[in-house]
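Reading is simple: the token line describes the chain's fold. The lines below illustrate.

. . .
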Amino acid sequence: MIKREDITISNWSDYELLDSGEGRKLERFGAVITDRPDPQVLWKKSDVNVWASSTAQFVWVQKGERWKLDKDLKEIWNFSYKNIKLELSCKGFKHVGVFPEHSHQWDEIMALGLPAQAGAKNKGLKMLNLFGYTGAASIAGALVGMEVTHIDASKTTIATVKENMALSGLPADSIRTVCEDTLRYVKRLVQRAEKFDVIVMDPPKFGRGPKGEVWKIEESLSELLSFIPQILTTKPKLVILNGYAAEYSARTFAELLSQVLPEGNISYGDIGIQQKNANRVLTTGIYAKWRA
């Protein structure tokens, strides 16, 4: 069965979507308020005055783009969602190190495990996080005792994952981190007959592996998904496929999952964030999810 279920994320103590408008969004991550571009924002700002509160602005300049920070603002700071602790920064492109719209997925992952002391060993579930970024989903799994493998092509990002593990109270060996091209690594998993109960995928539109491998979603995603049935256990729990600026619909992602996982229930839809100061939802991505 395939069913549409759009998801809206509410704000929490360490995160708020304060306002949005005219191609930009104003968010609070802990004590830092960011003003950065978002192509989905076509409407006017709800409150022009609130934008003066921003402490970090992502701006376009003649030689490219950069973050403009208030004088006393630290470039790196901490952020939390429940027991997940992350290190955020304004060092790179317009991303800061977390996608808050995925918090509902972190909850779903944690609900699959059993309450446990941080870093407690595998409770019988194995999780694979592909294009894992800074590791929020991986930490969610590890916190409830899953045996987690985290894949990302960036050495810098893998280093941040390890920092986030420590911040979240996890021992250094609680997550297996691998800096590798995702498609290449999945093929190796197939050869090794390694299986997982939970698989999370956050593929970009375009990317490069550490050895120059090229990822193009229009050419690579279907091939990647074709291997998923071969690396699932006999009683898998959850497969999540997230999307951003790839110009595909959530239904397209659902149909791709249905093609390789015909047995089970698939939900799909937009992921949005509730704006604090208006009855407005900013769509920030799409997802498709398979459950047994």
Notes: The longest strand covers residues 281-291.
